[in-house]
Amino acid sequence: MTDFKKSVVYEIYPKSFYDSDGDGLGDIRGVTEKLDYIKELGADYIWLTPFFVSPQNDNGYDVEDYYHIDPRYGTMEEFEELAAAARERGIGLMLDMVFNHTSSRHEWFRKALAGDEKYKNFYIFKKGKGPGIPPTNWESKFGGSAWEYVEAFDEYYLHLFDVSQPDLNWDNPQVREEIQKIVRFWMEKGVKGFRFDVVNLISKGEFADDEEGDGRRFYTDGPNIHQYLKELNEGSFGMDPEIVTVGEMSSTSLENCYRYGGEGENELSMVFSFHHLKVDFVGNEKWVMVPYDFRKLKEIIFQWQTKMEEHRAWNAVFWCNHDQPRVVSRFGDEGPYWKESAKMLATAIHGLRGTPYIFQGEELGMTNAGFRSISQYRDVESLNHYQILQEKGLSSDNALQILGIHSRDNARTPMQWNDGRQAGFTEGEPWIEVNPNYRYINAQTELRDEDSIFYYYRRLIALRKQYDVIAYGDICPAAEEDAQVFAYKRTWKDEELLVICNFYGWPVSWKSGESLKGYEILLGNYGESSLEENGAMLKPYESLMLYRKRGE
Ligand code: TEU
Q1: pLDDT tens-digit series, residues 221-267
Q2: Which of 197, 221, 231, 267 is catalytic?
Q3: Residue 234 catalytic?
Q4: Whether the CB of 29 sits within 6 Å of ligand 1
Q5: pLDDT average, residue stretch 184-212
Q6: DSSP string spanning 127-178?
Q7: Which of 16, 291, 296, 481 is in the most buried spot, having the most CB atoms within 10 Å?
Q8: 340: phi > 0 → left, psi -120 to 50 → alpha, else beta; which?
Q9: Is residue 197 annotated as part of the catalytic site, yes or no?
Q10: Which stretches are transmembrane (predicted)?
Q11: Catalytic residue among 148, 248, 323, 496
Q12: Ligand 1 mean position to 323 CA, how many Å?
């Protein structure tokens, strides 16, 4: 059995991964063809973002039919081939289940709109507060009101995301049963894990106006959330102890995560939280342009690390996914220290207590898209906010600058396989433009260079397998007051691991505060280091991973 604490997960956004048939969209066969690449990297699981039948308004997070594969991605037979080929290589597949909402084209919603009471009760329909006034003032995460008016009923339905993504009513036991059935169906296909999309939003509380915010406090980590997760666990994936699960927890709290990802809670194996990625927001507002707050980044990571450990709960640790800008562009350097900063950021994450997730292309040091025109964007959230920002009075240039930093499309440009046409992603025209830096940032170049970012990630994955302290060690923050260095220690039995990262493009003197005698360098991102007994003069973006056995 693969131990999830010793494992690393590789996230694939199939639409942008590899196109096997030249239609410009990545597909399932494309994933199968590239399995050896992932095997070479050493990842244990592949998380595939949704490939179910969908109108693709939100790239598959709007599911029309949970039991069938969107023909644009392939067939069930091709999926089974992928599962078998992955199994042969010792790689497990993790599927992405979107159960907070369906697509408005789902049969359930169509029946609801046709007036079928059974299915109306699968969703959340409410009367408005008055003519033209929705039931509450909640905002959709993609902009605008979270309620859509349906004239035939003189009622509104709730959509926390796009208007084409109506929220399911989890308080209805029939909904919960249908969902268990879907999970069991995919378990029978040999799937080894599940990621549950925004699963902490499924239990809605009171439907009241939010005088302070956008409404999230009424439906986030809601009143029955733990009960619903335990029930889902018991009725589906919990029946197979080998299955690994991760919940995407939007705007969650530590207290709830102790339970979502807690040992013996029978909810999920681990949780994604996002507070550490809001350090370049202003409050909850993402569509702004401010430098990131390094001290806050450290503080949040350390708080989650130590508190989750204290409560015997498990984190997924990550910088990147299909919703986040590329981390080298965000907290590293796209310029002269591109390689060093990409490796440093990898070290910072992979040494933490938790299961690391790598998003496709992160292991190549892929950067933000660099789009300059709105016509290059595809993401519904970006397109909506481009309008909203201008309605607020920003110029279109300014709005584009902000999109350039925060848009989800930054992560969604095609995987850069080689320096050939369209980066080797497709023989056709890609659905979203390739980043022109594919000429020097691509897998082929990385695989030819022993000192590449790719091989550095491979080494980090291998070290996790080799050293128990990396997988299981307790966490102890270090250099907490330092304005430039992120450092921490891990301890396990007689093993000690020390991770030291300079987050800036200039040198810094770091004092260890204890003797470093006996430590060996497991990994560093420079050929040589100036490590001494009491610290080091760290070079720009330098990182070190040190190891020693006590008593040696
Ligand atoms: O994302 C949930 C989510 O709320 C964010 O990551 C979101 O993209 C961001 O807050 C907007 O600023 C999940 C999926 O990962 C995302 O791709 C889907 O669009 C979303 O759920 C809806 O299913």
Answers
A1: 999 999 999 999 999 999 999 999 999 999 999 999 999 999 999 99
A2: 197
A3: no
A4: no
A5: 97
A6: --SBTTB-SS--B-TTSSBSEEEEGGGTEEEE-SS-TTSPBB-TTSHHHHHH
A7: 16
A8: alpha
A9: yes
A10: none
A11: 248
A12: 6
